[in-house]
Design a protein that fits this description.
Elements: H1 7-59, H2 64-78, H3 82-91, H4 100-118
Helix pairs in contact: 1-2, 1-3, 2-3, 2-4
Domain ANTAR: 29-90
Organism: Streptomyces sp. R21
InterPro entries: ANTAR, CheY-like_superfamily, WH-like_DNA-bd_sf
Length: 119
């Protein structure tokens, strides 16, 4: 009866299997690190967006949901990411000027919000 694999072939197969397992683990580590980094960025973005929401709520007494909608509206009209709108708005607390397109759209959105509240 012939042996299916020789000891040398078995060793090579074990090496390949170990390498495949290591490759799978390394791939998983890389994916987890990328996901962790993405989640960290999302948390940082979320914090600044929440600060901007609070600022909008103070500017135009409204609910958190309406403040969110207003920021989304400004973002869409300016074609600027929501997080960038929020960063720009929060930066005004450090004496940075709000970029003109965002300032203009924020003013319009606040005006629409006030008009809607009067009805």
């Amino acid at each position: 009866m012939r042996q299916l694999t020789t000891p040398r072939e078995e060793q090579r197969l074990l090496t390949v299997v170990a390498s495949a397992e290591e490759t799978a683990l390394l791939t998983e580590v890389v994916e987890l690190r990328a996901r962790n980094e993405q989640l960290g960025r999302a948390l940082a973005s979320r914090a600044v967006i929440d600060q901007a929401r609070g600022m909008v709520m103070a500017l135009a007494p409204c609910s958190s949901e309406r403040a969110w909608d207003l920021l989304v509206e400004v973002s869409q009209h300016c074609n600027v990411k929501l997080r960038d709108v929020a960063v720009a708005l929060v930066a005004t607390t450090k004496d940075e000027a709000l970029p003109e397109p965002i300032r203009r759209e924020l003013r319009r959105a606040l005006r629409r919000l006030h008009l809607a509240d009067r009805r």
